[in-house]
Amino acid sequence: MYTQAMSVGPQDQAAKLQTAEEQQRNEAFEARIDAGDFIEAKDWMPDHYRKTLVRQISQHAHSEIVGMLPEGNWITRAPTLKRKAILLAKVQDEGGHGLYLYSAAETLGTSRDQMLDALHTGKAKYSSIFNYPTLTWADIGVVGWLVDGAAIMNQVPLCRCSYGPYARAMIRICREESFHQRQGYESLLVMMREGTAAQKAMVQDAVNRWWWPSLMMFGPADKDSPNSEQSMRWGIKRLTNDELRQKFVDATVPQAELLGVTLPDPDLKWNAEREHHDFGAIDWAEFWRVVGGNGPCNTERLGTRVKAWDDGAWVREAALAHAKKRATAAKAA
Ligand code: BYC
Fold it and tell me: Is the C-beta atom of 67 inside 6 A of ligand 1?
């Protein structure tokens, strides 16, 4: 005979069983993470892991397609046919990256419509960097060199992310980003070696405007990054924001020297003890202003995206009507 104190109702029992089962699944999941296994779409995963991935991958996808806008702005004004063809291909690549990433996020059970709706209603974030204007042709070279350079630094470790579909998408993206970075640097080399004094000054001016926003791309300092600790533990992020930022600075300083431009930071210097470059303080107030929607181009970027989506409604409707017609014909056959 069971005593009152020991008795548990059927509901409590189910809840307890579920908790024990959840705990076991969680332990098995953590063990797979510790062993360095890839987690695949159909595998069990904790809700928070799924949500973190949807957040990061969808933000990343949005950054790719919003990132097409500042560069697309220069396709009609590229100085030569060669540069126009390169820029067209690059902007098209960014659109492709967005598609791989939306597909990877969809494997986690969120629809593309949901993600795009979050972007278009201003609920979702995208990289702060794309809220700055591309004022001159030199900006296009500097975006390739610094922005794609920062993107690669951040994204190469993501090829080893614990979520398989994201990691695989990143391998292809990184190969293309590497071309993007090199074409930007090469176009700047041409301007700095063969250009007029005015063209060289234009490159320096672009470097002055893009340097600090590029450092901000890596996200807040580790001590102010609420997501880093858990994401590192789950192997979503392999290096912290500050580690990646430091690697970027160290890699970029010799490239700037070769190019013959000055990075706009009087505190930037080699620290022999740390074997890294020290650099000046980042204006985090500016970063949060831009992330919060009040950067120089936030309104313009979102407006352009929403207009492109609305203008494309007829294409989506036509594709759906065509698919329906084909399905009806296949059924009748
Ligand atoms: N801009 O806890 P934290 C590219 C947000 S390159 C806006 O450190 P996490 C491209 C962050 O989302 C750019 N928001 O977050 C290149 C979080 O807010 P929520 C895209 C930012 O996720 C060339 C809050 O601040 N790359 O696509 O651990 C041409 C606290 O941050 C930013 C990627 O997306 C920022 N810069 O680390 C075309 C790479 N930084 O979500 C296209 C994948 C931080 O909690 N993403 N925030 O509301 C990542 O590696 C990480 O998500 C981050 C941030 C390092 C960016």
Answer: yes
pLDDT digits (tens, 9 = 90+) for 232-282: 999 999 999 999 999 999 999 999 999 999 999 999 999 999 999 999 999
What angle is formed at CA 323 by the lines to CA 317 and CA 326, rounded to 5 degrees?
140
HSE value, Cβ hemisphere, 13 Å, CA-based, for 202: 19
Q: Which DSSP string corresponds to 240-283?
A: -HHHHHHHHHHHHHHHHHHHT---S-TT-EEETTTTEEE-----
Residue 60 Cβ inside 6 Å of ligand 1? The answer reads yes
pTM of the model: 0.92
Angle at 299 between CA 298 and CA 305, to 5 degrees: 90
The residue whose CA is least distant from atom 30 of ligand 1 is: 225
